[in-house]
């Protein structure tokens, strides 16, 4: 299949991005004129409270290659990406952010690597970041290393959501039924051949990011709990270690009393031991609660998202069990 026969679908989550959307659309129109392949874009409005939806309606009316899906409320970026893949109709799908930090210039390079047969999934890796602080870059590297140390699935360091997915990869991701979706882990879990392409990330064009350190912490926690049982297993090891230490200490106290007649340490050491063990028990219960909470959410069988309105080229399969709402 030649480049002129291909259609590449861009999937772009949107949450309160009224300032970024006009800039994105202008850049998309200019880039599309230079690309040797056809392209369309599917926006996913993730419950925006500003005028983002009104802009999406306007753009879809003005351009046949612009589509949108609008949620009934905010479901999160991971779900928005999944909904976009459900409704994207192209031979391959490129996931992008609307804030212009994923440059359009990298898309043809993704397509070239994919078309050469070198990879079924091409992901972008930043050469530099003009906006993120040194602390954020350091915590990001720390997360990737920690995740890869604990999880059975290995994440390529620096690989984000900016990537091209072959249609077979998209179909594989769509077949996954889980509701707690950590997309970076799912990209790696489905397998297929992958290739990294570096790019320079510009500063955010407009608006402010909705992510903060607390949200990023919860995002990292979701990823680890979704792809590793190590947090559960570690408490078994800690329990054995504490039990052995308690046995050794108890034996020492008994021998001291029987042989030397030493007084048994008093309430201070006893209170410290009780508080230490109580704290460990509360932490272990909290870890169990994280896993049980996710099991509870999965067993409800609710749809992944609810669509309030949409104008799309592709209708998601009714048997996917993911989306509900307006058809």
Automatic annotation (TrEMBL):
GO terms for cellular component: plasma membrane. Pfam families: Glycos_transf_2. InterPro entries: Glyco_trans_2-like (IPR001173), Glycosyltransferase_2 (IPR050256), Nucleotide-diphossugar_trans (IPR029044). It is a multi-pass membrane protein. The chain crosses the membrane at residues 234-255, 267-292. Keywords: Glycosyltransferase, Membrane, Transferase, Transmembrane, Transmembrane helix. Residues 9-172 form the Glycosyltransferase 2-like domain. One of its GO terms (molecular function) is glycosyltransferase activity. This is Glycosyltransferase. It comes from Marinobacter fuscus.
